[in-house]
Automatic annotation (TrEMBL):
Enzyme Commission number: 3.2.1.40
Signal peptide, first to last residue: 1-21
Enzyme kind, highest EC tier: hydrolase
Domain annotation Bacterial alpha-L-rhamnosidase N-terminal: ranges: 188-357
Annotated Alpha-L-rhamnosidase C-terminal domain residues: 807-879
Domain Alpha-L-rhamnosidase six-hairpin glycosidase: 480-804
Pfam families hit by this protein: Bac_rhamnosid, Bac_rhamnosid6H, Bac_rhamnosid_C, Bac_rhamnosid_N, Ig_Rha78A_N
Any one GO molecular function term: hydrolase activity
Catalytic activity: Hydrolysis of terminal non-reducing alpha-L-rhamnose residues in alpha-L-rhamnosides
Name used for this protein in its record: alpha-L-rhamnosidase
The organism's taxonomic lineage, starting at the top: Bacteria, Pseudomonadati, Bacteroidota, Chitinophagia, Chitinophagales
Originating species: Chitinophaga defluvii
InterPro entries per record: 6-hairpin_glycosidase_sf, 6hp_glycosidase-like_sf, Alpha_rhamnosid, Bac_rhamnosid6H, Bac_rhamnosid_C, Bac_rhamnosid_N, Ig-like_fold, Rhamnosid_concanavalin
Keyword vocabulary terms for this entry: Hydrolase, Signal
Alpha-L-rhamnosidase concanavalin-like domain: residues covered: 368-453
Amino acid sequence: MNIYKIIVTWCLLLLLLPVYAQVRVATALCDNRINPTGIHTQAFFFSWQLVSQKNNQKQTAYQLVIASSKSMLDRQQYDIYNSRIVKSNQSIQVIYKGPALLPGRTYYWKVKVWDASNVASQWSEPQTFITGLFEPSDWGAARWIGAESASPDTRVVPFVHGKLKENDPRIIKSKAAPLLRKSFFVAKPVKSALLFISGLGHYQASINGAKIGNAFLAPGWTTYDKTVLYNTYDITNDLSKGNNVIGVVLGDGFYNVSQERYVKGTGSFGKPKMIAQLKIIYTDGSEEYVVSDTSWKTKPSPIVFNNIYGGEDFDARFIEKKWNTGSYNDREWKPALLAAVPKGRLLPEIDYPVTIMDTLSVKSVKVIGDNKACYDFGQNISGIPQIKIKGKPGQTVKLIPAELVLDNGNVNQADGVTPHFYQYTIGSNDEETWHPNFSYFAARYVQVEGAGIKNQQANDDRPVITDIKLLHNRNSAPANGDFICSDSLLNRIYQLVDWAIKSNIQSYITDNPQREKLSWQGEQNFMRAAINYGYDVYNLYRSLVQNMKDAQHSNGLIPDIAPEYIQFDGPFVDSPEWGTTGMLDLWFLYSCYGDTAIIRNAYPMMRAYAQYLQTKAENHLLLYGLGDWLDVGNVTPKGLTATAYYYKAIAALGTMAAIIGEKQDASFYQQLSDSIKQSFNHKFFNEEKKIYATGSQTAMAMPLSLGMVDEKNKKEVLDNLIHQIESIDGNRITAGDVGHRFLVKALYENNHPEVLYNITKRGDVPGYAYQLNLGATALIETWDGKASQNQLAMGHILEWFYEGIAGIRQDKQSVAFKNIIIQPQVVGAITSASGSFHSPYGWIKSNWELKQNMFSIDIEIPVNTQAKVILPARSNSKIWMNGRKLDGWKWDNETVTLQVNAGKYTINIK
């Protein structure tokens, strides 16, 4: 065959090959998770993220298909759903509108899209989702079971703040955590095995001796009289032919809080209990169910004490080897008892589980006495110690975690949280490994009492710690972004805040990991943007909305904590800066993720709270609450912060009402927000001096940042804020955890990043750098470094790092980062910065450098979005984009503005 025929043959073959679009489906999500389990079919949705090697790409259409099996999906037999070709650029929040789905089923799906040239992409990789159990009847014969019955007289809800009084008959004492097991026989080949399970307060489940899943403290914390969460696991590959065993151990958690050691509050919804259904589908099509009932067996576990606040004790002498395997004989075990059914309805846990995310090794160890040593892990985290120990049966070791140490080397459980400790009793002569399972603490140090150090000379037979680690637990939400710049101090501040965030995102956002462990809503209200830049907390915030719905009072009040395990008094139950979380979380879920379904779902909650606030207002002013909590000098009137948040929340509610078609409400709330703004200015604004209230940083910054300042006064108010910071406060921070976020935003959004840079860099007065100079490794609760050493509420500076220095934010009219602004701020001694943020459409990246007289930036804009790029320039600058010189660009106020579509760009400005 000659060369001509070869070329012709190859050309013909190429013509026969399919032509695919320039875009590819990189990530496909169901309910914002990859291959999720426990999907509730009420308004669940699909999303996908696209990538392309070519710039200017977008989606023009999509097709989404669902099948009942992988083989049918592969054969293009879409027996469940086929959207056909939908002409739309929508690639997020695509609500499922197909036929009703069955509970407890695995479904298979994929999606493809058409690009800007109307050319189809390849199909995405096959995906799955598993539906949950929708109704109580779906649980079939499964019953709540436990090891003991609880008398209604022992119920203490809401919890007592602190401890019950001595001789109170309701005093709650911890008992050994119960073990429960169920053996069952598998005789035929298994096609599918799905386990639906909940345990209160917490559970750990195993199948044939192996732990199921990787969750820590599952399920998440809720108002158990309203909602009880359950989890769904696919354990198809974990079953074996013949005898199989499900094993469960139950911990107390927030369901049953005893009072032997430190507690923030004491109370009980009941005794530990569980419910489970294992649904087995065999390859021949038959089904079998293994359910929790009195055929299960129970026995006390070696966990002889556990308390979410006080710690945990383990006696290894009581270990039942292979208790959760088929070879174990459980004849001595007692039958499980039917337990009281919790009042709350069973709902699937939609958030990422709390898991062990990091393992820290010892940085140094100090011997502080006989059989006593203090281990320093170099970083304050939410966590638990893990030990390897060798000794003799019956010997005990005590582990005391802490954030600080005293001058004599002993740990210091400051801030009134003592005692919290873990006690381990050795069970054999072999080396043993252990860590707590149902408690945790804020810790950098672990003091070990009753054991020696490995390789240490000893003349006694004491046990020896052969290894010790510190395990970090947090919500396993994926990373959403990162930031680094040429200024090492700002990088250290970033890490300081990041560790506080990581330590306080659990199944809800905690106030701190030691003293509180409660969901004070100020943290999520003040920090949601900063948290979201670092971690994908969409699912977490959806679950927080459910917590607020459950906690709402009959009069409409949304309390300061949710779940409201403890009912506090006065502003500690009702402070608008905390309660408006119940509106502003919904606004966040819409503006940052495009979720309108949850607005409809939670709208009654928001409207009821708005009505409550109206009854509390005096001439549209809310003159009560906690105020600018932990500000320096108590310099801002309480009513100012409360009313400012009232305005912000009502304005957002008006917009959300319009989005879901509540036109009458939208008009009413718009008028109400205007009235609040007018009353606010009448009350707090000094027209002659152009100063709000006391002129404090918070008093000036909040109205500026929230758009409450009339345009004619804005410049003078801003100038007076700068004067207050520089000339009166001497570049010292006075704003507290309510106002500091607005101080940060008022400065960098109004072209004064240099002022923010100066106050942030100071290490000689209370602030971020001051805390670092004190040796902090996580953000401290107060600017002066006192109270909790791991608390996220003051971490607002991250918004400036991402939106200002890296320059990544969305246009104010945009939803879900569809329209992006890239506008880095070159400030102070910073010569380079890099930031990335994972938006619902994909990664947004900005990486800039200033070298001599050349400003260079690499940016990445996701497919299906566009960006306005605003960069520093002079009127005579020369600009190149991707190597091509640009002409005719517009210069304004020391910047140049460029419009770009999706893609990757390198821009150089000389």
